[in-house]
Queue: 2 jobs
Job 1
Amino acid sequence: MDPEIYNWGPHRYNSYTWKMKALFGERLQKLAIDAGFSCPNRDGSRGSGGCTYCVNEAFNPSYCESTSSITEQIRLGIEFHSVRYRRANKFLAYFQPYSNTYAPLEVLKERYSEALSYPGVVGLVLGTRPDCLEDETLDYLSALARDYFVQVEFGLESIYERSLERINRCHTVEEGVDAIKKTHAMGISTGAHFIFGLPGETSEMMHKYADFISALPLDSVKFHQLQFIKGTVMEKEFIEKPGDFHQFTLESYIDFIISFLEELSPLISIERFAGEVPPRYIKDHNWGLLRYDEVLRRIEKELEKRGTWQGKKVAK
Ligand code: SF4
């Protein structure tokens, strides 16, 4: 058994970028949009204060501001990416910050439709929480998925209740699992996001994510290493109790990711292995100022060097 049995092109892992390129016949560019939604963990309906690590601005590209219309953000996003990368002709509107299914259906329809009416936009990616996806929204997205690519990306962050409580997520693991199963069953592409390095989690505990994730009907996943954003509750907690955190050096993170990948189902695509926050938001750059492309290059090189691949230890 080797990775050539999979349609992964030059990769030793199931690359989301590669899969999407194969699906659409060309490279797609994701354009982040801040559509002005809120979050039930900030407005008091589920919790207040938000997750202890959250500063939405730190994860948003500069062109993405809710004060501009969705159309204008898409125009600026296309312009932004075309000076950095080869120009793409097809785009995914990525509703990124806050909870992008958290509004009455009529409001959601209006905002999604504005994005889909922009020339070249072939689909939606909606970042959200597991506890804010109403059945009527799912029905609508399921119908939309017949004509467009539609993906819902859930922030699960951890597979441990204790961790979710500690980071003030204000939803449970079970809610995450239910939302994934329900969304997938409706024919909608289903993604999830996890963080490695949350307080109280050891490397052994993080390895257990692989079996847990592999058992879910997920199309894609994103992984981030925990980063301490300036001014957050998480940063304060780290300063007070650094021993509660398993901190990765770049080398130990790559080592962890390689062995983790071997245990992860080869059927799930991976969109990201690590996060990248603009340097002004973090005090301690223990990985230097390395860009994500370089982290990815090193992971791919290490997979090659070790002659291993995603799912090597689980594939029959
Ligand atoms: S759910 Fe998302 S937007 Fe809301 S507080 Fe947590 S990280 Fe921030």
Job 2
Amino acid sequence: MDMQIDWANLPFGYFPTDYNIRCEFRDGKWGPIEVSQSDTINIHMAATSLHYGQELFEGLKAFRGVDGKIRIFRLEENAKRLIESAKGILMEPVPIELFKEMCIKAVKLNERFIPPYGSGASLYIRPLEIGLSPRIGVKEADEYLFIIMVTPVGPYFKGGFKNTNICIMRDFDRVAPHGTGRWKVGGNYAASLGAGHKAHEMGYSAVLYLDPKEKKYLDECGPANFYAIKDGKYITPKSDSILPSITNMSLMTLARDMGIEVEQRHIAVEELADCSEAAACGTAAVCSPIGEIDDIDTGTKYILSKDGKPGPVTTKLYNALNAIRLGETPDIYGWNTIVE
Ligand SMILES: Cc1ncc(COP(=O)(O)O)c(C=O)c1O
């Protein structure tokens, strides 16, 4: 079929593709991999996913590289993180090999939706697992559905790589101190909607959450991890209430390779006053530079950019990570899975 997609202007939204890949866990085992052309699912109205939040997901990307090859970035790390999320809310872990096979199949079958090299767009891969068993009492399911859907998404920085402002709102938490923050489960995102909406209304791109126990340390942004540059060092929060971002993990490696010292530790809010750069990092943006952080309730404004432009370290990290994803520089750590 002939298709004209305006790759550069695609939003970060759902764009229908040809196929999704499904697999069900029943009778204590994963069944056959199925290819579906339907974008709906038919499940029991009492399913645990609908009532008790037994739902988890992942998010990763495939790219068309400079050499025309298709690369999926850090496939195995996403498979491993899904297993941690599944254990966290008593769901059935998806075996790493099954996760990989289904992602690769989804990418291959939807190859015509992989944006061309140079467009800045990519194919977003969204693995999703839900509990199927009907339950009225609060109890885990024993049957699960695992789906891989893919959708092309546009470049994150449409008007170019640029700063945005974020805010701290002390009346909101997205997770509890020993709660579900380190897992990628739907409830965390439901809990962040209210604060996120309020922040957007005030003109901020995201909320920077504080640790929910003491409200002293930085945690992460609604949909991304956080790092700052202080005295030339890359500092990023250590916390068990944040998602272990695979982008952040990759940036830490790249920073060390650039000779930048990396510290993963508690970061007190006030330290922001001594930072020269900050960014939100994740699959969507790589790193999204922050111009200013406003602590709404205390009225403190932290300025993270003197000239309104992304700082030199963030720019270097952004370019380095993108170059690996697009096959422009050698993938010395084996982060890419080439889809053939
Ligand atoms: C809450 C949260 N933190 C961090 C991230 C960034 O993680 P990653 O770099 O693996 O995409 C995401 C997005 O996936 C997220 O939803």
